[in-house]
Amino acid sequence: MKYIEISNLFKSFGDVTAIENLNLTIEKGEIFGLLGPNGAGKSTTINILCSLLEKDRGSIKICNKELRKNDASTRGKLGIVPQDLAIFEDMTALENVMFFGSLYGLKGQDLKNKALEALNFVGLEATKKLSKTFSGGMKRRLNIACGIVHNPELLILDEPTVGIDPQSRNHIMKSIKTLNKNGCTVIYTTHYMEEVEAICNNIAIIDKGKVIASGTKESLKGFITDKNKFEVMVNDITEINEKELGGIRGIDSVEFKDNRILVSIDREINSLNEFILYLTDKSIKILDIQSKVLTLEDVFLNLTGRKLRD
Ligand SMILES: Nc1ncnc2c1ncn2[C@@H]1O[C@H](COP(=O)(O)OP(=O)(O)OP(=O)(O)O)[C@@H](O)[C@H]1O
């Protein structure tokens, strides 16, 4: 069932077009991934959806109903976890969550119980410590607790794992999956394609304010089934000229990491042989070759010629 339908959304800031005729459909009950590099237009889309920003043109329908400014009934169904931490540093975790819960009309013991539940859910204790003493990961988790205290029908998370430790990241990923299993529809924006691959059903890749590809991760990878990717470990990388290597017909992209070369090769032209000859001509020893699984990062690179985190 269609839950959100965004059609021909347009938003500019002066001369900068942030969103250009963007179209998205989000199904009820899914974890939808909005993937794109910095400046792609993810936050602008999310902020319009949450009525924090006004659109210039286009339509946003939630459950088939056009989203109107200050629509309290729709707002009550949404939970928002903004990119910038929206917590009060001089308040405890419980005080923070209770404050946000009260904005959604929760009161008294019900408010306290739901706030404690939300804290428990993200793995935080209701201690007397002020939030300013928390680690980055704890603050991010608290930010999420504030967004889910009122049991939203739709949770929108804008890059919730920026700059945190792997343990908190894993905790956040698990919590989102559990929330979704309990019936919450989730929109997850990020430029970390591993996260999108791990938790999202449907994905839209956006760039320069437009959707450049959308679908399941499998269908997106179908865009580049004409490529093979290899990781080649060599004894010495200093003699290799990236331009020369990239210039070999059929070699789509080359990337260096320590003494490893990541190479994407057009399946039809299959120039692995030329690639190996190039290395052996320079007396470079190949220590290992592994075939790599294609990722959404590869899809993005293939569609735009750029990396997600350039
Ligand atoms: N308030 C604003 N004033 C002027 N330009 C803005 C404003 N907000 C966003 N932009 C511009 O709109 C474009 C899209 O920005 P947006 O923040 O939506 O991207 P994003 O995908 O969320 O990127 P990031 O991951 O860096 O947050 C960028 O070019 C940005 O500089």
From TrEMBL:
Residues 4-233 form the ABC transporter domain. It holds the Pfam family ABC_tran. SMART domains: AAA (SM00382). It comes from the Bacteria. Gene3D superfamilies: P-loop containing nucleotide triphosphate hydrolases. One of its GO terms (molecular function) is ATP binding. InterPro entries: AAA+_ATPase, ABC_transporter-like_ATP-bd, ABC_transporter-like_CS, P-loop_NTPase. Keywords: ATP-binding, Nucleotide-binding. PANTHER family: LINEARMYCIN RESISTANCE ATP-BINDING PROTEIN LNRL. This is ABC transporter ATP-binding protein. It comes from Romboutsia faecis.
